[in-house]
TrEMBL record:
Name the record gives this protein: TM2 domain-containing protein
Organism, scientific name: Mucilaginibacter terrenus
Compartments, as annotated in UniProt: Membrane
Cellular component GO terms held in the UniProt record: membrane
Keywords tagged on the record: Membrane, Transmembrane, Transmembrane helix
Annotated membrane topology: Multi-pass membrane protein
Length: 121
């Protein structure tokens, strides 16, 4: 069995779907670019626990916080002004916090890939 230092194993809550997506994303990068990608992606991704906390705060304190954090400003404003779509939307986000985190992290992986391709030759 081949064992090597995989930097993505450093994320304690990286889902298999996210790991697969990230590995596909960096497959065409050289080692220097992969290091840079890892550095950029580390700062951009949100953990599943973070998304759970944002969803709980969004349910009880500031409706739509989880949507603002993921960059969905329009949905965040809608949740804010409708009290989380009468709590139903906030409860659904609480149930689906893993998929919210996964979708956000996929967007950040693609964005990090684009930054890496432009910054490192």
């Amino acid at each position: 069995m081949e064992t090597y230092n995989n930097p993505y194993m450093g994320f304690p809550d990286m889902t298999p779907e996210e790991m697969n997506y990230v590995q596909q994303t960096v497959s065409g990068l050289n080692d220097k670019q992969r290091q840079y990608f890892y550095m950029v992606y580390t700062g951009k991704r949100k953990s599943v626990q973070d998304m759970l906390i944002f969803s709980l705060v969004g349910l009880f304190v500031v409706p739509g916080l989880q949507r603002f954090v993921t960059g969905q400003i329009g949905m965040g404003l809608l949740y804010l002004f409708t009290i989380g779509l009468c709590f139903v939307g906030s409860i659904m986000d609480l149930i689906n916090h893993k998929s919210l985190a996964n979708e956000y992290n996929q967007k950040m992986a693609y964005e990090s890939f684009q930054i890496t391709k432009m910054a490192v030759a």
